[in-house]
């Protein structure tokens, strides 16, 4: 027995949502969250055996994302994102704050404390698998906790894991077990592309045995509305939209070039020794001039596919102008070419972190001039590794 037209209309009036991104289905405007062809939506609903059957349907965007890894740009309202986050402060909730270990500065949420109120925070450092295997988890957890504290977030604990690994869901469930009974709502927050949906899918597998139900991708902005998933009889996990940081390098380049920015396997540390008058390029994205008189040593942590090319500083500007986009890849999208230059002094044991790209760790005091895109965020910090 299938549904009749009246029952289909009832479901549509109630507002059914995409299982991938959480957006409410609509057939009026392509390019707007939740779009699905009217006939496809109607035929699916009509095929259900009961009006109470679970809706396991993907919108057009999520279908292409899941099956073809194709991104369909959609119009979204950032104010709506902030409204969802702001509601956390009014609830009794546990907050799971996910940060990308490969882009810590770029994945911190400015002013998070004002969104979440006095609710406890479990800080989760994701993507451990792309860092060198020599990294000490306890040391990294303490370092991450300090970074969050410097941003005004005092975490009750920090957890280091890799959401892509099969045990990630169980690791996190064990870490939050003492909080589940006291906090009926568990909100997962983070910027785009930190692995929120991947981690929640791992939890779902542990709890129910089901496979992936939330769309995951290398593209930013996968989850467009909050998605609620039952955890126990009295608690639920709520995946929130990823906050978009336009100052990350991923927003300056074409999505086909994310392969140079977002590592999916262990990053190999690359150590250099340079002297004054030498420069190093980050693909076709920018370059650093070294101004020290003495030789300095530093280690670079970037995707293995990103070419770090050394040249003489006197030739750097011409080299960038003539070779970016040719032998030097990737380059920024048209409209993002405006550059800025900044002189920076760093001490031994400090990082220069480039949002959405990677970082340099300097082993000697150094003075550099960094030539990079206007609007791209950079920061100096205590060494991560």
Structure description:
The chain has 385 residues and is of the alpha+beta class. It folds into three domains: 5-68, no CATH class; 78-245, P-loop containing nucleotide triphosphate hydrolases (Rossmann fold, 3-Layer(aba) Sandwich); 255-382, no CATH class. Helix content is 25%, strand content 23%. The chain has ten helices and 16 strands. Strands 3-2-1-4-6-5 form a six-stranded mixed sheet, with helices on both faces. It has a five-stranded antiparallel sheet with strand order 7-10-14-13-16, with no helix packed on it. A five-stranded antiparallel sheet has the order 11-8-9-15-12. It starts with a helix and ends with a strand. 41% of the residues are buried. Residues 217-221 have low confidence and may be disordered.
Identify the notable features of this structure and list them briefly.
385 residues; alpha+beta; Rossmann fold; five-stranded antiparallel sheet
Give the helix/strand layout:
Layout: H1 5-14, H2 38-46, H3 60-68, H4 78-86, E1 93-100, H5 104-107, H6 112-116, E2 121-126, H7 137-150, E3 157-160, H8 168-180, E4 185-189, H9 196-208, E5 227-230, E6 236-239, E7 270-274, E8 278-282, E9 287-290, E10 296-302, E11 308-312, H10 313-323, E12 339-346, E13 350-354, E14 358-362, E15 366-373, E16 378-382
Parallel strand pairs: 1-2, 1-4, 2-3, 4-6
Antiparallel strand pairs: 5-6, 7-10, 8-9, 8-11, 9-15, 10-14, 12-15, 13-14, 13-16
